[in-house]
Every structure is written in C-alpha cells, then in structure tokens.
Amino acid sequence: QVQVSESGGGLVQAGGSLRLSCVASGPSFSDYIMDWFRQAPGKEREYVARISKDGQGTHYASSVEGRFTISRDNARNTVFLQMNSLQPEDTAVYYCTPYPHRSWGQGTQVTVSS
Questions:
Q1: What φ, ψ does residue 44 adopt, rounded to 5°?
Q2: Rounded to 5, what percent of the chain is helix, strand, coil?
Q3: Which residues make Cβ contacts (< 8 Å) with residue 47, sequence separation at least 6?
Q4: How far apart, in whole angstroms, are the C-alpha atoms of residue 61 and residue 45?
Q5: Contact call for residues 20 and 9 (beta carbons, < 8 A)
Q6: What is the pLDDT of residue 18?
Q7: pLDDT per position as a tens digit, 32-68
Q8: 43 Cβ contact list (under 8 Å, min separation 6)
Q9: How many CB atoms are closer than 10 A to CB 69?
Q10: Parallel, antiparallel, or unpaired for β 10-13 and 108-113?
Q11: How far apart are CA 4 and CA 8, in angstroms?
C-alpha cells in the first residue's frame, strides 16, 4: 500500500502562491492515479484535483480550475499542487491520496489571509 507525506503548506496573503508536494512510498507509484483533497475547519473533506498515472491527464474541481495545477514526477514518487491566486476560502488542510486504494497522510496546512 502506498503511504504518503505532504509538505509545502504555510501562511500566505490573498493573491499569493504556494507549491505543495506529496512524496509517496511503497511499490509502483506510477500505477496509481493521484488526487488532492482539502478539508476546511468545520467542513467535509472535498476533492481538489486528479492526475493520471502518466501525468498526461488532469482534472480539477470548479472552485480551483484555472488557479491550481497538479503535476507529478514518477521518478521521484512525488505529486505536486501549484496553487496561484490563493483566496481565504482556500484555507484548509490539504491531503494527497492514491485512487482508488485510499491512504491518507497528516496533510499540510494552508492558511490564506485577507
């Protein structure tokens, strides 16, 4: 089973950018579709973005499309989330997870101040 560890979160002003990283350990990382989710305080965890096994296909939630970019480097077992034009409503703990065999790390906190 793939295990994941997220990093790169922090505090940023509205309009700023952050790049999240997720390193996966375990066999055959390139065999997994990878997703990013987020969970804001008091809200359910929500889907953010998905990337195909080879990185050629991506999909985004409507709330982040055009601002966020998901990518991966299979040689480094890493998936990225570039977040631009951040808004206070993007404040959440961000998680990466393989699909469909979910595993969850601790997440990384992103806080956007207005």
A1: -75, 155
A2: 10, 50, 40
A3: 35, 36, 37, 61
A4: 13
A5: yes
A6: 98
A7: 999 999 999 999 999 999 999 999 999 999 999 999 9
A8: 92
A9: 17
A10: parallel
A11: 14
How far apart CA 86 and CA 16 sit, in angstroms, is 5
Tell which residue, 9, 19, 7, 27, has the closest CA to residue 98: 27
What is the reported pLDDT for 47? 98
Q: Please give the Cα distance from 76 to 59 (Å, whole number).
A: 22
| Assigned token pair, 111 | 């806080």
Query: Residue 26 corresponds to which amino acid?
Result: G
For residue 80, give the 3-state DSSP assignment. strand
In tens, the pLDDT along 2-35 reads: 899 999 999 999 999 999 999 999 778 999 999 9
Tokens of 36: 């990013």
What tokens does 35 get?
């997703």
Residues 5 and 30: their CA atoms lie apart, in Å, by 16
